[in-house]
Design goal:
single chain, alpha/beta, Trefoil (Acidic Fibroblast Growth Factor, subunit A), Rossmann fold, eleven-stranded antiparallel sheet, eight-stranded parallel sheet, 15% strand, Proteophosphoglycan ppg4, glycosyltransferase activity, Exostosin, Exostosin_GT47
């Protein structure tokens, strides 16, 4: 066969190529329409919804568009696509996703186009002759180069981009504004935020020339500042951090990225106002632009509504006023969160409906059709959380709201049927599934888990097979919004799209799990990741629950698969979530640690500052002249004071004596001092004590000087007028020898007539250091005599106009705050300086700072992502093996971003700080049906009505809500050990079980045990075992040896429990309802009675006790349950305040505050300060001190007082606490470092006030600052929870009383497992 010529081969190839093209062309005439997407599967028995687009006749629109274009056009388009794919010349790079695959036509469309990823409405996704696709090279673009060039010129020549962000200071809003101002938005995880592959002219124009206006009801510029200055900068339009040689490094240094600088540079405007304010919104969206006046954010709204404020003056200085371009796009984020929506559904709906209406009304542009330059409407992006969409109403979701975005959705669609509008409804994950806002409520799930892990606090995770929605980084959420905004903005510049109305709906979900194995619960994965990153020693429990399906992308009944949603978002929006949970958590933890570091730095600068100079200390001492103070010294680790001896037990020959600083019986002892400048310009003090009359009573207003008198023994303190005394000195020189602890020595002045230097200084010392009798003597110091170090503790200072309290820093530092309630050091080596509160606080702050530094290094290091299987998981065991079980309890700081962070020396416990961020954006209308805008006066509402409107969820802490909502029948069941009468003989004394015959409040054990006996289950069925022990009864009434009784009880119970090895120590409960709780009968002393170590597992038993003072070792802070004490006024309280209607409203009460109680023992310092300047004889006083209201007795006075003052007591609180609570008297706790009953369940900040003990002298000033609205809210919350604090015999199972809350606490504790020492397995 002859060989083919080369020319023949070419002709053959050309013929084949032409044949393929013809076949491709002919096939286009019979191409089927695109099949509907499977984005929505109707529920069983539910008819398929034709969708909004079909109801508007978009099927006809699709046919109409095909007719305009014609089959030939379609074939030619596909032909060119084919050429492009074969030759690689398919047109220039794409810019947008397939969201705008619409035909180019000069004819007006008969209706809006529509794309809905949640329904079957994908009807108009036609084969386009013009593609704005996303990604790399697109082969489907058939537009001409000339058209493209024209579009580019049009885009670049448009007015400056001006984006209005409503709700711009919200959680997501701040991130969006940050990323708009910082172009690509920051860290490497947000590279290429616009999704653009090249740096074209229009991209840079967008990035470099954007003006952002924030409209929000609150100005949170400080929060936005932090985000701006914390963001890592990337090169606009591409990956990689800005290099040091780049000039933008200087311009965009952290110090330059501030709200104020962006305002001054014309890139940011902040307007404080409501999106429902039609006039304000209309002014902002004025098509002719608006006037920007350099005014504070809270005055911007007034300036916009009053143009005169923005006009420059004719002469002299002018206001910085500029006319800015019209708004070209709107990101509408202003809305209630689903959680906040429950606080006021009426106002929530108003924000949604009226807010969108105000925006749409402002962009109608009625009567401007002929003014082309004014007709252009801004595009609109409406992002909302998933539990605000249509599905929420058909899902039983605890986080969802009955309200949805159906209101703005419907309004936008209706608007678009009549006027061209480009809009995007963006569905983000549900309420608590977005990670990353450092200012999010500490009670939201993710912050709650992270804060708990940082404090080594217990973490309970409730999981469900129906709750598998992945978490989304707030940076990814912001990026998806901005990508949608950019698409709409670019499209709105295309002439052929301007007259087309367009509405799109898309869902955004988080990235897929990082493991290919069986998917764990996202919340459990997050908790374990947080524990690993922080290296937390938190006890942990993962509790599987059965819950109804939730409206989330993970639930197939409501949505397509997550994979399909990610593909859809990538295709039509150009967005793919890239930030894993691990990376998002690292970023979030790093952010809150930076906030904490800033706060700590300020605290450390104060607490650890250089000690004041001697002149400053002397000025402070002079300011104390006329005050009653304690002269404190430290003896064998305990504080003693040099105080007046009148009234002390025993014989005291001298008017002042060295006594315990807080004697249990006599109360606080001090002396009055007069301070003046003496010899050598040093400060001398004179000491005075009250005058005792012949009747043995103190003479009011009189005092006598205490001098140092000569005796045969070397001297003594004596009254100046004592007969036969030989005065030596009545003034004592103060020498500050340790400025850091503000401690000093007291010295006698030199003997008159003796030349200076010839006489040794005589300082106050012990007469005989080896004697048990602590007698004092002024003598020269040396090896045998050491000068005693003293320090002042002010108790009461008369108020005088000339007194400068600011020079005496001890008004803010009370060294006794932790001294008398903590055990002395074992070796007695505690120094006066080490025991000073300021010094202790400095050490604590530095330890916390060191922990944060280590955490930040750990968070910053390591891979950016990690699989679930690679997470370091501790080995968990019983409480006995817990690494942190013997650590002390850290202090809490409610003013800090993180109230408590555990260090190597201490662990945290649940605090009473509450949440600094209000639950509702409009707190004044929370739990009402009133609208916040326009503002109206609150209608009269009774206390009973306010209480009835309050949901329990508002008062229960997040970690307790799941357990609380179980209901009493699903809470843990208990087995009560049946003790023989020879051991349990508490019924022998009526005082042990009959409240009316019991003078002391120790009967809580009886009520709890008897109630549990009524529903006691078998040992095999029990979740825990209750061992009856009647501590107060045995000690006070039966006069038995409580330790021997406890030993007998434990011995019998041990035998009874031994048959069930599943009952471990943390499942055994013993009640201790005496004031001292387990301190009077716990294992340290029990060992002496038993003769051997306490039996295991009894030594790890859980105490239900009244003592919550964690300065001592009497309580295991996160294991024991603190319960209320029984009050002898129980019956009277139930009868007097039967219902909320019987409680006097707080604002009708006469007195600001009421204190009833003694001034002895624990809390005596604070109690004495409360009484400073109050005689208890003034019935018109704002604060009633140890007196009743005129014409009233005790309960009547409670009902006439707004606040009840409750300083520290023996169990860290007073029994009167529960009487005050039930009477609706707001508790004002004056106590530090303690636990109150059920503090791990109830949010005490919602119904009480806590005042530091050091500020006890400022109570009137502090309490007077509360507004009537705040008082009403506190009281309503208080009355809602009051049943938790009062026992009701025989009815504990029918109410939410102490027993119910004790069982809720057990539900939170029983599943916990504790990390073992040094454990960490992959």
């Amino acid at each position: 066969m002859p060989s083919l010529r080369l020319s023949s081969l070419v002709r053959l190839g050309s013929l084949a190529f032409l044949t393929l093209f013809i076949l491709h062309f002919l096939s286009s005439f019979s191409s089927p329409s695109p099949s509907p997407s499977s984005y929505y599967e109707p529920l069983p028995g539910e008819a398929a919804d034709p969708g909004w687009g079909e109801r508007l006749g978009l099927d006809h629109y699709a046919d109409w568009e095909e007719g305009v274009r014609g089959r030939v056009g379609a074939g030619l388009g596909k032909l060119k696509d084919g050429v492009g794919m074969i030759t690689g010349f398919g047109g220039r790079g794409a810019k947008l996703g397939s969201l705008y695959e619409l035909v180019a036509t000069s004819n007006a469309s008969p209706g809006p186009s529509y794309y809905d990823a949640r329904t079957s409405m994908d009807k108009i996704k036609l084969t386009s002759t013009r593609v704005l696709g996303h990604g790399g090279k697109s082969s489907s673009s058939s537009s001409s180069s000339a058209d493209d060039a024209a579009d580019t010129i049009s885009f670049a020549s448009r007015d400056r981009r001006h984006i209005l962000v409503t709700g711009g200071f919200g959680s997501i809003g701040k991130a969006v504004v940050r990323d708009l101002l910082l172009t690509t938005g920051g860290s490497s995880s947000r590279v290429d935020a616009w999704g653009a592959p090249t740096e074209t002219a229009d991209e840079l124009t967008w990035e470099e020339d954007v003006l952002v206006t924030i409209l929000d009801v609150a100005d949170r510029s400080a929060e936005l500042n932090f985000l701006l200055q914390s963001a890592l900068l990337d090169k606009p339009g591409g990956a990689g951090k800005i290099k040091g040689t780049d000039p933008r490094t200087q311009a965009f240094s952290a110090s330059e990225r501030s709200v104020e600088n962006f305002r001054k540079s014309g890139k940011l405007r902040v307007v404080v106002g409501d999106v429902r304010d039609e006039e304000l919104v209309k002014s902002i969206l004025d098509p002719a632009g608006t006037t920007h006046t350099d005014l504070p954010a809270d005055q911007q709204a007034a300036a916009l509504l009053n143009p005169k404020l923005g006009r420059p003056k004719q002469k002299g200085h002018t206001l910085a006023t500029t006319v800015i371009p019209p708004v070209t796009g709107i990101v509408h984020l202003a809305a209630y969160s689903p959680k906040a929506c429950r606080t006021n559904p009426v106002d929530c709906r108003s924000v949604e409906q009226d807010g969108v209406s105000a925006i749409l009304e402002a962009i109608k542009r009625e009567g401007m059709e002929k003014q082309a330059e004014l007709v252009e409407r801004p595009w609109v992006v409406v992002p909302r959380r998933a539990d605000r969409w249509d599905e929420a109403s058909i899902a039983d979701n605890g986080n969802s709201s009955t309200l949805t975005v159906q209101v703005p959705e419907t309004a936008i669609k209706a608007f678009t049927t009549k006027r061209p509008l480009h809009s995007l409804l963006l569905e983000l994950p549900s309420a608590f599934s977005i990670i990353g806002d450092p200012y999010a409520s500490r009670f939201d799930p993710v912050p709650h888990i992270v804060h708990s892990a940082l404090g080594n606090l217990p973490i309970n995770v409730y999981t469900s097979s129906t709750e598998t929605e992945p978490f989304l980084s707030i940076d990814d959420a912001s990026r998806s919004i901005i990508q949608g905004a950019r698409m709409l903005d670019v499209a709105s510049s295309k002439e052929y799209l301007k007259s087309l109305g367009f509405v799109a709906e898309l869902e955004i979900v988080g990235p897929p799990p990082s493991t290919s194995s069986k998917r764990p619960s996202p919340l459990a994965e997050l908790a374990q990741t947080a524990i690993s990153l922080i290296q937390s020693e938190s006890p942990y429990a993962e509790i599987e629950t059965v819950r109804p399906a939730v409206a989330s992308p993970s639930e197939s009944r409501f949505h397509t698969s997550e994979t399909s949603l990610r593909k859809t978002a990538s295709k039509v929006l150009g967005f793919t979530p890239t930030i894993s949970v691990h990376t998002a958590l690292k970023s979030y933890i790093s952010s809150i640690l930076r906030l904490q570091t800033t706060h700590l730095s300020a605290k450390i600068n104060v607490a650890c500052s250089s000690p004041p100079s001697t002149p400053v200390l002397e000025e402070g001492l002079l300011a104390l002249s006329g005050c009653n103070v304690q002269l404190l010294t430290l003896i064998e680790g305990a504080y003693y004071t040099l105080g007046c001896s009148q009234g002390l037990e025993g014989e005291h020959d001298e008017p002042i004596a060295l006594v315990p600083a807080v004697p249990y019986k006599e109360g606080v002892r001090g002396v009055e001092i007069i301070a003046e400048r003496g010899l050598e310009n040093k400060v001398d003090i004179q000491m005075r004590c009250p005058v005792v009359g012949k009747d043995g009573k103190l003479v009011p207003g009189e005092s006598e000087i205490v001098m140092w008198a000569d005796t045969v023994d070397g001297g003594e303190f004596a009254e100046l007028n004592k007969e036969g005394a030989h005065p030596i000195a009545e003034w004592y020189t103060i020498d500050f020898v340790q400025r850091d602890s503000r401690s000093f020595t007291m010295t006698l002045p030199p003997t008159e007539g003796v030349p200076e230097g010839e006489e040794p200084k005589r300082r106050l010392t012990f007469r005989d250091p080896t004697s048990t009798k602590r007698s004092l003597l002024f003598q020269p110091t040396g090896e045998d005599a050491h000068a005693l170090l003293w320090k002042f503790n002010p108790i009461c200072c008369p108020a005088t106009a000339s007194r400068r309290k600011d020079v005496w820093d001890f008004f803010k530092e009370d060294p006794l705050i932790t001294s008398q309630v903590a055990y002395p050091s074992e070796d007695g080596r505690t120094t006066l300086g080490e025991s000073t509160l300021a010094v202790k606080r400095c050490h604590e702050l530095r330890a916390e700072h060191d922990r944060i530094t280590k955490l930040q290094q750990r968070v910053r290091s390591g891979p950016s992502s990690v699989s679930t299987s690679d997470v370091c998981r501790p080995t968990y065991g019983e409480a006995l093996t817990w690494t942190a079980k013997d650590q002390q309890t850290c202090s809490s700081d409610c003013s800090a971003p993180i109230a408590c962070i555990a260090s190597e020396d201490c662990k945290c416990t649940r605090d009473r700080c509450g949440d600094s961020r209000p639950e509702s954006p409009f707190p004044r209308v929370a739990y009402t049906d009133r609208k916040s805008f326009p503002a109206t006066d609150a209608p009269a509402q009774s206390l009973a009505e306010r209480v009835a409107a309050l949901p329990w969820d508002a008062l229960v802490l997040p970690g307790a809500k799941d357990a609380f909502n179980l209901g009493v029948d699903r809470l843990p069941k208990g087995h009560v050990v049946q003790l023989p009468d020879t051991i349990d003989n508490h019924l022998k004394s009526p005082a042990c079980f009959d409240l009316e015959r019991s003078p002391l409040p120790f009967m809580g054990d009886h009520y709890l045990v008897e109630a549990m006996k009524n529903r006691s289950v078998t040992l095999d069925e029990a979740s825990f075992v209750l061992v009856p022990y009647y501590q107060g009864c045995y000690y006070n009434y039966l006069q038995e040896n409580t330790f021997k009784k406890l030993a007998d009880t434990v011995g019998f119970a041990e035998t009874a429990i031994a048959t069930n090895p599943a009952i471990t120590g943390d499942r055994i409960v013993i009640p201790f309802t005496h004031d001292f709780g387990s301190c009077t009968g716990w294992w340290q002393k029990l060992e002496d009675v038993l003769g051997h170590s306490p039996p295991s597992p009894m030594d790890q038993a859980v105490a239900w006790q009244v003592n919550g003072d964690y300065n001592t070792r009497c309580i295991k802070v996160d294991r024991d349950v603190v319960v209320p004490a029984v009050t002898k006024h129980t019956k009277a309280l139930f009868e007097t305040f039967k219902t909320p209607a019987d409680v006097a409203p707080v604002n009708s009460r006469k007195h600001l505050a009421f204190f009833a109680g003694g001034v002895r023992g624990f809390g005596a310092i604070a109690r004495t300060k409360i009484g400073c300047g109050r005689t208890g004889q003034d019935p018109n006083s704002a604060i009633l001190y140890q007196q009743f209201s005129p014409g009233q007795r005790y309960l009547g006075t409670l009902n006439a007082s707004k606040f009840c003052l409750l300083p520290r007591g023996i169990p860290a609180w007073m029994t009167r606490t529960f009487e005050a609570i039930y009477a609706g008297c707001i508790p004002a706790f004056i106590v530090d470092r303690n636990l109150f009953p059920f503090q791990d369940i109830l949010d005490y900040s919602r119904f009480s006030v806590t005042i530091p003990e050091a500020d006890a002298h400022r109570i009137e000033e502090i309490l007077s600052a509360y507004t009537p609205e705040q008082l009403s809210e506190l009281q309503a919350n208080l009355v809602k929870v009051r049943e938790a604090f009062l026992f009701k015999d025989g009815e504990e199972w029918e109410r939410r009383g102490p027993l119910f809350f004790s069982l809720v606490s057990m539900q939170m504790r029983l599943p916990l497992q504790y990390p073992e020492v040094g454990s960490c397995t992959a």
